[in-house]
C-alpha cells in the first residue's frame, strides 16, 4: 500500500490547494495511492466539518485520508502522525520552536510517530541524528529520507544516514500543489494495508515501510 505522508492544503499558509485536488490527481495515476496524510504547517484541524469532508472525499475516491501536522521545533520541521488530545494539551501545536526532544518523546509515548522532515534541508536534525538517537532510542526510529522537493544530494544524505544508523526510511511528496512537479512524485510503501492513522503509526513504528518513487510523467522536471 502506498501512502503519501507529507501533503499540504490551503489550511497551510503557503498552499492554496483544495483537498479534493490531490484526490482527483491521485485517481488519474495508473499506480494507486492508498492513503494521503494532510500535514499542515503548525495546524492540526479539529473542526468536525473538516473531518466529515475528509470522510466524504475518502469514500468518493477510495483513498484513505489521515490527519497529521508539520510541527515547528528548535531543530526543524517534524511530521507528527497520531496526534492525541494529551499531546494537544501539552503543546500548543500552532506555536513555533518547540523543543524537539520532549515532543518526540511524548509522541512516542502516546503511540504516535514523529518523523524529522527533510532532515538535510533547512533542518538541524540531519547533523544531530547520532546524538538524538542516543538520547531518544526507539522514540526516533523513522526519518523522511525522500522528500519530493529535496535535491538529489539531500535525499542521498538522508538515505545514507538511515543505513548507517538503522533508521526506517520513508518518503513524502511535500506537495503544496497538485501539479506533476509537486504531487505523486514519491510515497511510502507499506508491507500491508492500513485503514486508520493508528494502524499507520503501528506499521511505521515497526519499520514495515520503505520509500517509493512514482515513474516520471511528461512535463515533470528531472
Please provide a written account of the structure.
This protein is an alpha/beta fold and 222 residues long. It has seven helices and nine strands, in the order E-H-E-H-E-E-H-H-E-H-E-H-E-E-H-E. Strands 5-4-3-2-1-8-9 form a seven-stranded mixed sheet, with helices on both faces. A two-stranded parallel ribbon has the order 6-7. The longest helix is centred in the N-terminal third of the chain and has 14 residues, at 48-61.
Q: Can you give me a brief rundown of this structure?
A:
By secondary structure, the chain is an alpha/beta fold.
Average pLDDT level: 97
User: Which series of helices and strands comes N to C?
Assistant: EHEHEEHHEHEHEEHE
Segments where pLDDT lies below 50 for 5+ residues?
A: none
Number of strands: 9
Rounded radius of gyration (Å): 16 Å
Query: Structural class, from helix and strand content?
Result: alpha/beta
State the strand order across the main sheet.
5-4-3-2-1-8-9
Shape field: globular
Would you spell out the secondary-structure blueprint of this structure?
Blueprint: E1 2-7, H1 19-27, E2 35-41, H2 48-61, E3 64-73, E4 76-81, H3 85-90, H4 100-109, E5 113-116, H5 125-136, E6 142-147, H6 152-165, E7 168-172, E8 186-190, H7 197-205, E9 209-213
Parallel strand pairs: 1-2, 2-3, 6-7
Antiparallel strand pairs: 1-8, 3-4, 4-5, 8-9
Helix pairs in contact: 1-2, 5-6
Amino acid at each position: 500500500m502506498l501512502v503519501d505522508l507529507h501533503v499540504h492544503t490551503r489550511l497551510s499558509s503557503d498552499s492554496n490547494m483544495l483537498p479534493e485536488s490531490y484526490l482527483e490527481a491521485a485517481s488519474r495515476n495508473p499506480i494507486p495511492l492508498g492513503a494521503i496524510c494532510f500535514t499542515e504547517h503548525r495546524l492540526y484541524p479539529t473542526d468536525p466539518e473538516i473531518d466529515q469532508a475528509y470522510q466524504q472525499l475518502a469514500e468518493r475516491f477510495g483513498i484513505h485520508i489521515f490527519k497529521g501536522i508539520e510541527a515547528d521545533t528548535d531543530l526543524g520541521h517534524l511530521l507528527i502522525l497520531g496526534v492525541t488530545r494529551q499531546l494537544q494539551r501539552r503543546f500548543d501545536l500552532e506555536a513555533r520552536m518547540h523543543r524537539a526532544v520532549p515532543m518526540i518523546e511524548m509522541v512516542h509515548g502516546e503511540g504516535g510517530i514523529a518523523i524529522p522532515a527533510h532532515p538535510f534541508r533547512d533542518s538541524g536534525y540531519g547533523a544531530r541524528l547520532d546524538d538524538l538517537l542516543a538520547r531518544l532510542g526507539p522514540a526516533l526510529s523513522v526519518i523522511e529520507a525522500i522528500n519530493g522537493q529535496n535535491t538529489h544530494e539531500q535525499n542521498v544524505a538522508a538515505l545514507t544516514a538511515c543505513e548507517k544508523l538503522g533508521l526506517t526510511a520513508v518518503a513524502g511528496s511535500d506537495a503544496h500543489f497538485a501539479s506533476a512537479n509537486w504531487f505523486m512524485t514519491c510515497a511510502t510503501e507499506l508491507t500491508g494495508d492500513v485503514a486508520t492513522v493508528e494502524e499507520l503509526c503501528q506499521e511505521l513504528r515497526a519499520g514495515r515501510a520503505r520509500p517509493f518513487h512514482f515513474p516520471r510523467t511528461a512535463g515533470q522536471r528531472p
